[in-house]
């Protein structure tokens, strides 16, 4: 018996040893657990497998928990260094892991990644709450905060202290008893619902195909759209046919040019009913539940509404300010839109159409009217906007403004074959950061365009940690015989995301939570939107808009036509966008957690603002990912708010010169480098010498 027990003990030790060795081996193979050893320390995408994420997330949580405990157990009196600073630098492994995971989930997802996200969401939510609701940690933070006036802190340190204290207070650190547990439940449910909303939307977007077999149904379409549809059909197994989807590079040209009204209606309704098809991907219930939970959380924290909670730390400060701002724009914009309806209906009647203008007709007849009024067809511009030429022009703008250089790198890990990588350097050749760019639609990528980071800039132990930034787009793809030729809308989108990228790349901050784009939502769009202005400036356009075959620069006549048409259709553009701002605000100024009928609520919201039937709100509730899955809840107005800032800021260049070194230096030093280290209005005034004025924005939109 003794011998058997001994043998069993030895076997147990061996088994335990084998398990330990196996775990050690798995850890050694997990690229998140070792130094990356890659150029510029970018993530080693080729070595990262889906199986690595969950262990790394769990280990990252374990390490940050230990760091938090060390802060709490520190026998020394709480001070800025051992508490506030120590907390901001904590969680490095977790931060690195989730930055890769979350970015791949958006830009190169899969069923396996989506399932992992659902498994990780409750774990991550619990960890965030374990920190934010930690009474001992908050007590140390409060000790430092209560002595803030006695401390000799730099401006950035004072901002970090203020934001850290408020972050804890605004996330429930002061709650007691059952309220803390309720907060945990709400946060976990919100995280899972947001994931599901996004996953459903991607499935709905990928799920629609309009396959055309009769060439007559292509009437009116430009050759570029026909060629793209033929290639898409071949890739999808529909050889000899034409495939159109609700991805914008496919859908928008169809709405603009297709003579077949029935098919325009079909693709338009497919787009505007995503998430509203009463199937397994329906988002109506999810959106309503998200809104209700947000009210419940806001009330728990002592706020009347979710919007009050969100806007408290934005430039707008409260919902009333946002509504007044939107009202000032919506009135004149609706007036313009009604005039545009009359003009489009007159064109329909003149052609003997015999029908009333509908939303799926707007793009088509607006394009015709633009041709009639300005002799301008947007397709005339595409041959001059070859992607690589536009990139070169965009880089030239950054070089002329800030002296930046961009060096393409081929031998570096990338997360997808479509992604291209550049090293960004100062004028003197010193390293700034790495920029990934990913241009074309695919089934594994979310819709729209965005900038993100794999590593934010910061400084630690005397070392500058260089940023790794990514721009993700969904542009018109190359075809068999043509390179990627962009619409002018895609050109401005590229410049827009590049502005965000510069905000991340040129950051010169100490603390991770304040660097780069970590600014209020209604300020973050200033660097992106101001960059759009250079895209359409004749001086700049001539430098990059070159015919993809002949190399000839864009004719002055085309530039003149483009400039002359700048205010065309602005009623539609503004109303479509601002109506979405109202919808966002209406969802998030609910005062009770009673769950709404999503479509009835949306209809009431749009009726209240007088939205005309010929225009559909830019984002209907079931696919409004910005606010239900993307961090813009109570913040979609930010683009218009920032348009006041960007139009006014660009005037500073127009008052001097497009590439005035002094103005560029002031913008870089006071806006791009500062991140969230100071109050955004203070930063803007330091740049401009005064508060922003609305005149330039109203003039641009023809609303003055």
Your description of this structure?
- The protein is mainly α and 704 residues long.
- The longest helix has 32 residues, at 319-350.
- It has a 5-stranded mixed beta sheet with strand order 3-4-5-9-6. It has a two-stranded antiparallel sheet with strand order 1-2. Strands 7-8 form a two-stranded antiparallel ribbon.
- It contains 28 helices and 9 strands.
- Helix 17 crosses helix 18 (488-505).
- The protein folds into 5 domains: 1-34; 43-132 and 134-172, Glutathione S-transferase Yfyf (Class Pi), Chain A, domain 2 (Up-down Bundle), CATH 1.20.1050; 208-272, no CATH class; 284-376 and 571-628, Neurolysin, domain 3 (Orthogonal Bundle); 383-564, Neurolysin, domain 3 (Orthogonal Bundle).
- It has helices at 2-29, 50-73, 80-89, 92-107, 111-132, 135-146, 155-170, 178-207, 223-235, 248-257, 261-272, 284-300, 306-311, 319-350, 359-374, 378-381, 387-402, 488-505, 521-535, 538-544, 556-564, 570-588, 598-608, 625-628, 638-654, 661-672, 680-688, 695-701; strands at 210-212, 242-244, 405-409, 420-425, 431-438, 450-455, 458-460, 463-465, 468-472.
- Residues 1-11 have low confidence and may be disordered.
- Helices cover 59% and strands 6% of the residues.
- The protein is globular.
